[in-house]
Amino acid sequence: MSRERPAQRPGSPTDTTDAAATLAALESACARTDLSAQTRALLERARDALDQARAARNYAQQRYRALFDAVPDPVSIIAWDGTVLDLNKAGMAAYRRPREEIVGQPIEVLNPDLPVGHMGPVRDALRRGDSYVIEVTNMRADGTRFPVEVHSANFEHEGQPCLVAVARDLSGRAEAESRYRELTEMVDKGVIVRGADGRILYANAAATGLLDAEVGATLEDVLRSGDWLVVDEDGRVLREPEMPSFQALSSGRTASGQIIGFYNKRQRRLTWLSVTSVPQYAAGADKPHKVLSVFNDITELKRDSAMFERAQALAHVGGWEWDAGHDQLYLTAESKRILGRDPAPDTITGLLDGLVDNDRQRFRHALDRAIATSCGIELELRGVRGDGRPFWIRATGEADAGSPLSARLVGTLQDITDRKQAEDSLRVQARTDPLTGLLNRDAVRTEIETRLADPGQSRLAVLYIDLDRFKIVNDVLGHAAGDRLLASAARRIRRAVGGEGVIARFGGDEFLVVCATADDPSRAPRLADAILEAFGDSFRLDGEEFAITASIGIAQSPDDGHRSQQLIQSADVAMYDSKRRGRNGWQVFTAELAAQQAERLQLETQLRRAVSNNELHLVYQPQVDLASGRLIAAEALVRWTNPALGDMQPSHFINHAESTGDIVGIGDWVLTRACRQLREWRRQGLPIERVAVNVSYRQFIGEDLAAHVRAALKESGLPGSALELEFTERVLIEDEPDTLRTFAILRELGVVLTIDDFGEGYSALNYLRRLPIHGLKLSQLFVQGVPDNTSDVAVCQAVTGIARSLGLGLVAEGIETVAQRDYLIGLGVSVGQGYLFSAGLTPGEMQQRYL
């Protein structure tokens, strides 16, 4: 086959040479002197015109090249015989070849897989005025292939027909199709794709699995085998045009949520499927060329009505339908059981009659609104069954919009009685002290705030009650006996107060009574006397009698406070004043006590900012080997210097921090700072084994102490054995399970655990033996009296014996004389601290003394 002469590319060398020769000839003719003036003028105009034409042509060529190279897809200009005439920059990048390697070459250099005569169909389509689209595989310079979709159209250059071909890279689409195929294979829903002729083009694994297609058999073969019947929900056999996928193909609309059954005649098995078929359209088409069907097995849901009703009963969910036009109500068996009416209501009025008044009105309004606006219903309603038992239901419904005479509501009734009762129980538990059955701390605060906010109840009194000598019971009989005493005390306070006030256990052995005073200003003192009288008789516990009295403080609004916290604090101040005056009495909050409270509030306000204002610092009291004086450890002691209050004694501000809860933040600061200091001492070579830090009871119960310890050790890079935590004896008897859990975690971290000031407080040995502690600290209260005070000597001997018998370490504190030290060494106490060795030292002083 002979090749046609290829058309010249725009801007080719031949075009440029011819124009230049013509212009040179014109310039030579104009220069001749033998030409007439008229002829010369004509030649000059011709030359100017040619100059302009050449400039215009150069501009057109530049514009063509800019536009040609701006196209982001590969573009080729191809002669009718298949020769490549030009290629843009995107083409050079895609094929990874320079233009000179492609231009002038046959198109097969880019598409080596094209069949012989491939240009014929292209030319035929373009001569008819159509474009030509084909998917082919192009080849890069390195031999790699990539799929493209080529769009070809007519193009004319200098009167010669050629074509322009734009190639769109399909690699991304192929990857997307691959990912789509992978996803459909992974889902548990059946997926089938049919072509426009109804034949199955693709079926995923779930589809073949649902219909039991054998390995190697196509789903088309399975469905046409004669083993299957397709039926609707009524059991009627469906013809092929009635199936969802063929409906979607013929109508061009989605066939959604249709239920069909596939009956295997050979196995006599019926599989119910929920099918949605979606038609697929090609670009620009007005008819679908494919249909995608997604289905899942709902056989279990369709098993039989008895099982469905059983499922409703198990879930405590029933159904209802109301024909509003005729006021006809249909209830499922489970709905009838939930409502508990015999006969069951068959009108909406009958259903409403079983609800309490407020909820009856709410449901009636919701029904009317649903009918009028087609909105949904979702309410929690209370009612009473026929036998008088209360119930709670969650009612949902949706309206079928239509005329008022044909409107229908369909919904569910769920029995939520158990949940509501559990919620009520939890609310009661959240407000109740589990030991005494009284209100708890948070509940009574809320009660006071609620009354203060109500002008009709805002005049009230708070009685703060603290049991005198309650700790004796815990010391002698233990925690369980103390609990019984608190429960008994609560009953006595209840009898004394009667219905004249609200009673709460505020914490430990402290109680609050809140009473109104507007109608009876003398009520608070009268109730205080009644309470004291109720404690006049001794308490009998485990065969022993204990004379437990009470100290009471009284504060009244609005004079003594406008908020619950202020009132409680005022009553607390009055209670402490009563206890100071001799116990077993009551005291009203006074101006003098107000001044003391103001001082306390100032102290608390400044203390709350002490950590953030960097007003705290630590000193460290050495713990030494009593025999040699060698430094072993150091106890971190917090000090506070405030610009307004000056240097504050720890005995003064620590108690306030305990009562307000600020001790938690202070304790965390001390823990972190002490660990950092020990790391610094070790870096400097100071011979110190560990640092001891006091842990407040509020720290222990108010936060995740173990988490804070773990964080401090991690931040400082210290092992757990480098830290000793000192707890008060109160930890021994409070909330034993949590105590054991926290102590176990701390012990796993390697932290040394010690009970501080052992012997001063509860000294509950039955708890001591169960806690995983390492040691005891012998209180300075007893060390001060040795070796001359017989009682102190006896206590020191007892504590030393306890520690030795339980295998616990023992540190004596408050050693001030050589005689005390020598006596303790004789008892077998090896480690101690006190002014005999050193007071608290700053970090620098520690370094100077022991480095």
Automatic annotation (TrEMBL):
Record domain PAS: where: 60-113
Coiled-coil intervals: 36-63
UniProt-listed InterPro entries: Biofilm_reg_signaling (IPR052155), EAL_dom (IPR001633), EAL_sf (IPR035919), GGDEF_dom (IPR000160), Nucleotide_cyclase (IPR029787), PAC (IPR001610), PAS (IPR000014), PAS-assoc_C (IPR000700)
Domain PAC residues, every copy: 132-182, 377-428
GGDEF domain boundaries: 458-591
Keywords, sorted A to Z: Coiled coil
Pfam annotation, one family: EAL
Location of the EAL domain: 600-851
Keyword Coiled coil: yes
Keyword Coiled coil attached: yes
CDD domains linked to this entry: EAL, GGDEF, PAS
PANTHER family: BIOFILM ARCHITECTURE MAINTENANCE PROTEIN MBAA, DIGUANYLATE CYCLASE DGCP
Protein name per its UniProtKB record: EAL domain-containing protein
Organism annotation: Novilysobacter erysipheiresistens
